[in-house]
Design brief:
The structure holds 2 protein chains of 2 kinds.
Chain A (H helix, E strand, L loop, with lengths): L5 H15 L8 H6 L10 H4 L12 H8 L9 H5 L6 H9 L3 H11 L3 H7 L11 H5 L9 H15 L14 E5 L3 H12 L3 E5 L8 H4 L8 H13 L3 E3 L10 H6 L5 E4 L3 E4 L12 E3 H8 L19 E5 L3 H12 L4 E6 L10 H10 L2 E4 L1 E8 L5 E14 L5 E5 L5 E4 L2 E4 L3 E3 L2 H5 L24 E3 L2 H4 L4 H31 L1
Parallel strand pairs in A: 1-2, 1-4, 2-3, 4-16, 6-14, 7-8, 7-14, 8-9
Antiparallel strand pairs in A: 5-15, 10-11, 11-12, 11-13
Helix pairs in contact in A: 1-4, 4-6, 4-10, 6-7, 6-10, 7-10, 8-10, 11-20, 15-16, 16-17
Chain B lengths: L1 E10 L2 E7 L1 H6 L5 E5 L8 E9 L4 E7 L3 H7 L6 E2 L1 E6 L10 E7 L3 H13 L3 E8 L8 H7 L2 E6 L6 E2 L3 H9 L6 E5 L2 H11 L6 E4 L15 E4 L2 E4 H4 L2 E3 L5 H8 L3 H27 L1
Parallel strand pairs in B: 8-9, 8-12, 9-10, 10-11, 12-13
Antiparallel strand pairs in B: 1-2, 1-6, 2-5, 3-4, 3-7, 4-5, 13-16, 14-15
Helix pairs in contact in B: 5-6
Chain lengths: 507, 289
């Protein structure tokens, strides 16, 4: 699929709009599934690969309505069960088809708090869109209804109109809850717990809120403005926010509960330490973890070379090692920071890559070159310890491994060298030890992830956990799902205590 | 946000500040550091060791040398100004116990972070021998404070303008050769000084703890920018350190990594200096009008 200009896309959508919308109640299923997928309008790849503005522009109202009538309102509703927060997707799509956009966003908001974010960063093709009946007809998820794009459209429309509704907050209960980390899991817990009238304090280690949505996911994929607005909603609900506060260091978790009067705590500190490959040359100058590279560029604004004090490496040729969303973000950021050539080196094939399809597509359009079935064996440097290249090995796919993906096997003697000056390692994170090492009561597994039960309860009384610190590296929506469950458990615990206190007073 | 409540110029380009930070003051222990930014939106994050703390006043003391953009901007801030971003205490505290005889080596600005460690070692019952050094007399800081703690104080300067004319490694070697040998050595200063302190004590098999000050972004283990080779293992200074066994640290790699952004930093700093100079000229011109 090659790039199509937004004007072309909207022109085509307009024709379909004229054809179908006047007779919307009479469109047969056969007709619906024949309507082409409405592609996501995007900035021209040649222009956007040098700017930081959002790549995907978003649907027009007509495009959204046409995409929505592709949904056949099937009775199976796989999309609902495949959504980690079980949004009533067919209903919101029906509202969208009829142009009832406010009703559509209201439906989503019953289940999800951050639709403008999820519409942008959820891996829809492995969740809600995976088993879509329309896609099944064509035996490809590419033809599924574009649920994520529709979610984004209705969420953006509400935002742009400026009528985002602040959720009601029940009368103050006098109970206090500490939320550690302001990423997707923490934000959801804060909102859900605050709604019940409990006092909520969010503790954030950085000076800006949003966790991975701030330091990790770049502006061109998720504008900061959107994250800011979600956080602003929390502030308006009365959530207290403390930045530059590292729980475990500035204050121990146990002290928050025992000395500072918090009745419960939620730990959503995210994936922590970057994993390196353990190969020769990894400490050379010019080798960065994707975390460092993206944090410099995003949180510290190093992309704004003129104004930011934080430096970022001047790269000419870059190799990104890894095949996930973080790898795509790093590769595309490197281009935007002025790299002449960017490779993504991945040891399996495109099919096995965990990144969102749209991100891979966008990266290709922008000129990122993918080297599949290859992997770095060692990193080469000069006498000043600066990176000069990587030695790679070629791979072939063998039998499926525990993850169900075919195992890559190195081909002996296939070594070759790529000359370059920068290597970005994006192969994942292990868990951050700051809370667990200062809170021995919290049990962790062998990878250091906090162990939480199905209600997100940890081994420490009154402490709950969710998101990447429990799951290992996962997604924004899964973190939100866990946050939702944790909030429900916390609310239940506090409600019970309030009841008991009332009874005591009566007696 | 953290208010500056005291500021003093210790030498030509070394400053001491007390900052309002009640929580950090309570929690911090010798050897730990903070990270600060002078601008919330565009500032960079720099790690600085906590030189002292006063829980009653609710303050911490930092001592820093102007070496680049952020430290220069910091040095221009005054009592009453707010530092917009201050976070800590980060890193692991120094392991303080009664070792017997300890030698504390502080070089240049490294005397500042050595101070709370020497203080804690003394309080733990150790015989504390302090070697402090600088390039010249003007750059020597905190001699009085160190004198109060030290059972024996040795002051050296590279050029002999004060104290003994020597590098810190010379008296260190003499102490290693004397009986009873020191039980442990702590060394904080420029990387090259720590490298040679470790090389000096190695033949005598005296454990030497060094405190590393590498490039950092978050300071909580997330970025890995601070990684160093220690005994052929990759360690993060922010969460595994900042103190390590000096005999195992790959100082050459660490020094190379410290120069990662040198050119860009120089350029940015020069722009800033030019800007400041222009502002000064403009100010003078307006005064003349």
């Amino acid at each position: 699929m090659s790039f199509q200009a937004p004007e072309e896309l909207s022109k085509k959508a307009h024709e379909l709009y004229e054809q179908y919308i006047p007779k919307i109640d009479e469109i047969k299923v056969k007709e619906r599934i024949r309507i082409p997928v409405q592609e996501m309008p995007a900035q021209d790849p040649h222009v956007r690969c040098r700017n930081l503005e959002e790549v995907a522009i978003g649907y027009t109202a007509e495009e959204a309505q046409i995409e929505a009538i592709r949904c056949i309102q099937c009775p199976t509703q796989n999309c609902v069960s495949d959504c980690p927060v079980n949004i009533n997707i067919p209903l919101f799509i029906e509202h969208t088809a009829y142009g009832r956009f406010q009703d559509a966003i209201n439906v989503i908001k019953e289940a999800s708090l951050l639709p403008a974010i999820c519409g942008r960063v959820c891996p829809q093709e492995t969740q809600c869109q995976l088993n879509c009946s329309v896609g099944k007809v064509f035996k490809t998820v590419d033809k599924s209804v574009s649920i994520g794009r529709l979610e984004r459209f209705v969420a953006d429309l509400e935002r742009e109109k400026g009528n985002v509704q602040i959720p009601d907050v029940k009368p103050e209960t006098g109970k206090k809850v500490a939320v550690v980390g302001s990423g997707p899991a923490g934000l959801v817990v804060a909102a859900d717990v605050r709604r019940e009238g409990h006092h909520v304090t969010i503790f954030e280690a950085f000076h800006k809120l949003g966790g991975v949505m701030r330091y990790g996911i770049p502006e061109f994929r998720l504008p900061n403005e959107i994250v800011d607005e979600e956080i602003d909603t929390l502030r308006k609900m009365g959530v207290e926010i403390r930045t530059n506060f590292v729980v475990g260091k500035t204050r121990k978790l146990a002290d928050l509960l025992e000395k500072d009067g918090y009745d419960a705590a939620f730990v959503g500190t995210g994936a922590g330490l970057p994993i390196f490959m353990g190969i020769e040359g990894e400490n050379l100058v010019g080798v960065f973890s994707a975390n460092e590279y993206l944090t410099r560029a995003n949180l510290m604004r190093a992309f704004d070379k003129k104004h930011a004090d934080t430096p970022i490496y001047n790269s000419k040729i870059v190799a990104v090692l890894g095949g996930g969303n973080v790898a795509m973000d790093s590769a595309r950021m490197a281009l935007r920071l002025g790299a002449e050539k960017v490779y993504v080196v991945y040891r399996r094939t495109e099919k096995e890559m965990p990144a969102r399809t749209e991100e891979v597509q966008h990266a290709k359009e922008e000129g990122v070159e993918f080297l599949f079935l290859q992997n770095a064996k060692r990193i080469l440097g000069d006498e000043k310890s600066r990176v000069t290249g990587i030695e790679c090995l070629r791979y072939e796919l063998g039998e499926p491994d525990a993850s169900g993906r075919r195992r890559p096997i190195a081909i002996p003697g296939s070594e070759f060298v790529i000359d370059l000056d920068t290597v970005i390692v994006a192969i994942g994170n292990s868990s951050n030890p700051l809370i667990s090492s200062t809170t021995p009561q919290i049990k962790t597994n062998k990878w250091g992830n906090i162990i939480a039960d199905e209600n997100q309860k940890t081994s420490m009384d009154r402490v709950f956990a969710g998101g990447d610190i429990v799951l290992g590296a996962a997604t924004v929506i899964l973190a939100m799902g866990e946050g939702r469950k944790a909030a429900a458990t916390i609310n239940e615990l506090l409600a019970k205590e309030i009841e008991e206190e009332k009874l005591k007073k009566v007696n | 946000m953290s208010k500056i409540i005291y500021k003093e110029k210790l030498s030509d380009n070394v400053y001491k500040m007390r900052l309002e930070a009640p929580l950090i003051a309570t929690e911090r222990k010798a050897g730990q550091f903070i990270i600060l930014q002078v601008d919330e939106d565009y500032g960079e994050r720099i790690p600085l060791t906590i030189a002292d703390a006063d829980t009653e006043e609710g303050s911490i003391t930092i001592i820093f040398q102007v070496v680049g953009l952020t430290t220069d901007e910091l040095s221009r801030m005054n009592v009453g100004d707010d530092i917009p971003v201050l976070v800590g205490p980060l890193g692991n505290p120094t392991n303080i116990e009664n070792f017997g005889t300890v030698v504390c080596v502080g070089g240049g600005i490294g005397v500042a972070p050595m101070h709370p460690i020497a203080q804690a070692l003394k309080a733990a019952g150790n015989k504390v021998i302090i070697i402090m050094g600088a390039r010249n007399k003007e750059l020597l800081i905190m001699e009085d404070e160190m004198e109060k703690i030290a059972d024996e104080l040795i002051v050296v300067t590279d050029d002999g303008s004060y104290g003994r004319k020597a590098l810190v490694t010379e008296p260190l070697k003499e102490l290693c050769e004397k009986e009873p040998k020191p039980n442990i050595v702590f060394a904080i200063g420029p990387p090259i000084m720590m490298k040679f302190c470790a090389l000096t004590t190695k033949p005598y098999n005296i454990y030497t703890e060094v405190s590393l000050n590498t490039i950092m972004v978050d300071g909580t283990g997330m970025c890995g920018g601070c990684r160093v080779n220690v005994g052929n293992q990759v360690k993060f200074v922010c969460v595994d350190g900042p103190e390590f066994d000096g005999h195992l640290v790959d100082f050459d790699n660490m020094m190379a990594r410290l120069s990662e952004f040198k050119d860009i930093e120089k350029e940015k700093y020069q722009c800033y200096i030019d800007l400041m100079a222009e502002a000064k000229i403009a100010e003078n011109e307006s005064k003349e009008d």
